[in-house]
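Let's practice the habit of predicting before peeking. Look at the sequence and jot down your guess about where helices and strands might fall. Then scroll down.
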Amino acid sequence: MTTFRARIASGVRVGGIRRALLCGAALSGLAALPTAAFAQDASAEAETVENDQVIVVQARRQNETLQEVPVTVTAIGGETLQKYNIDQVADITSRVPTLNVQVGGSGSGGQLSLRGVGSSNISAAFDSAVAFDYDGVIVSTMRMVQAGFFDVEQIDVLRGPQSLFFGKSATAGVLSLRSANPTSDWQIGMRGSYEFEEKGYLLNGYISGPLTDTLGIRIAAQFNDIDEFQLAQTGSPAVNQKRGLTDFIGRVTLDWNPVDRFRANLKVQYTRNENDGALGTGEVSCGANGIADTIFLLGGAVNLPAGYNCNTTDQRYYFTDTAGPLASGVPTPSKAAGRNGVPFGETEIWFGRLQFELDLSDTLSLTSVTGLLNMKSVDFESYSYGGFIPGPNGTRLPGGAGSSDPINNLEQYTQELRLASDFDGAFNFMLGAFYEDRTITFDTSQQGVNISFLGPDPATGFTYDWDKTHLTKTEALSFFGSAMIDLTDKLELSGGIRWTDEQKVQTISVPYVHTFLQGPAFVRPGFFSGPIEFADDNFSPEVTLKYQANEDFNVFASFKTGFKSGGIDNSALPSNSLSAAAASGDFSSLIFKSEEAIGGEVGFKSQWANRDITLNATAYQYVFKDLQVQNFNAQTVQFITSNAGELTTKGVDLEAKWRTPVDGLSFSSNLSYLDAKYTDDFLQPGGQGGVINLRGRRGSQAPEWSGNIAADWAIPLSDSLELFLSGNAAYNDGYITDETTLNDLEQPSFWLLDANVSIGHPDGNWKLSLIAQNLTDKIFVITSGGRPFLSPTGDDLFLTQNRGRQVFAEISFRF
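Done guessing? Here is the structure:
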């Protein structure tokens, strides 16, 4: 096995153990002070590796080649990301079959699913089933997905349960992103582009190099401003007839390498996102009846015309500001106060990661990864997704109902220590401990009833139904151990086990309820739940057998398990589930169970014809018990949190690459077959008072066939000029977009096409590019759900969709 010295991160809990971990990290940092650390030229090294057809991944928390690690991984290099102007997580789905990304919403802010398994974007209470590993830190908010990325060294997508090495969730897989590090010589890079469809521009750049012989620095920043992210339908009663967004990301990396035995790497990143509303590229479908159903409020006492057309593919969206009777008062403090019902969104994220690697001896190394994350996010939106009030002379006045003003705050601290061996003999090991301390504050003013159509609160003047705060504290501790044993010079047995203990405590407070709603159906103003507790622990074992037939061919078989802790629902409203729980004093109905996965896979990795041809394949089957799901009941206007009894996924992943005899021309492709079905009882409300069992139904976001084929051709025109042509075609044969009924909306099959034409210096000193994403402007549905405030006979659906075609003109320099 070719192994590049074990170095990277993952992630420990309570009392003396917690203090020991914190002190261990601090003492290790002090040990570094006399001798410190400087980075090797990581980006240049990665480029050399890729040109030699050797890609380094960290799927087992150590550097190994992609072709030798017995894990199913899709690796996307920074050069590919730049070729296609990919700076959003959602944009990589065309390169990774069965990966589905949804961005937007007021809860977690996004959703990742892989091989048909994911977690809701509605609730921030859920951890993602596809763990998001950002520079070695498992990030517990999908709003990092919203923010985008840049200056990336590599993205790795690991399929299947990865609990042993990544621990925190990861029942379905891991999306791992590694940003670029300082270079050994001074470099400056700049890139600017203009996008013609959404009328946006992007500027980014970096400066990187050695401050001293042992200390390197890299400073990078990106600003993206989009003027027409969404355009309004004719007649939309909104101040903003087009919605835009801006993103700023700034990052500083310090790499200190004073002696061979020690290296420290610090990354600090600031992200700010501003937008004109939380709906994103969301459309409303008029359903089978073909009409825009009214906004049905107060039991039918108020019926507002929906206003939107029934065209879901024209990329014109219905915006409505909040209706006048509902807009004037917001419980304070609130950024929505004084905005007159006009939607907006703001997110600020500070992220820090300190990693050090210390050689305790010639055969033992200690790695520490400390992660800090602080997020403050607020948005304001009308979640009726339609509505207007008829005005004089046929005009439309804003009629948005169901407005929400959520404040999502997150403070997360993680610490991981890892001890790894590098013996010359047949046996090597890794021992690790992980600790997480996390606090989520979800404070939201909501209009679930919209009672202020009858009048504002006579006591306060507020027009909101209630104000509610969920405060959730999580403390997680895990230990893991793994071993690799060379049974022969070709046969390797590896495996290990992780023990995880996770404890959560939530309190719910409702400081305000509209006077007209006060009564037995709602909790009283000033309600406080007291602590609602959840605790669970788990052992997650894993075993892999790999046979290295020769340097270019290996086969492997793995048994894997996964675990994602349960918790307490943070979407319960002061009516319905919460009021019933408060009356009885039993809050168990708000608790959802932990999710577990068990199964395995077999595969091979091979290279042929002097490594010009690569062919890899994996077959797998996994059973997910108590899959965590959350859906929305449009009639009761209530989120429903539950556990699906059992989801079974099985399939095959194929990957092929060909470096052709034609100089500079190469092809790559992926193909996935997926069969994902609910194989045990999964009871869901049917919307008309009944209950439907989804047992036997296919899972959502689970295409049976998906894949892509890409071609890259670098054509030398002279010693100082090169023409580059590239294209990517991705196919998806369709999937179910929800998990509520037996006839949920299905997205038909579709193709996506990307293309790039560039001319510039062969060494990348300068380049002019014309880049197109989604060249045919294909619009498809990612998820669907009932539109809130439907009448008993209404069938309109709210659809989250992809972005349309994007065409960039770009210029870049590097010197």
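How did you do? The domain at 3-500+510-814 is CATH 2.40.170.20 (Maltoporin; Chain A).
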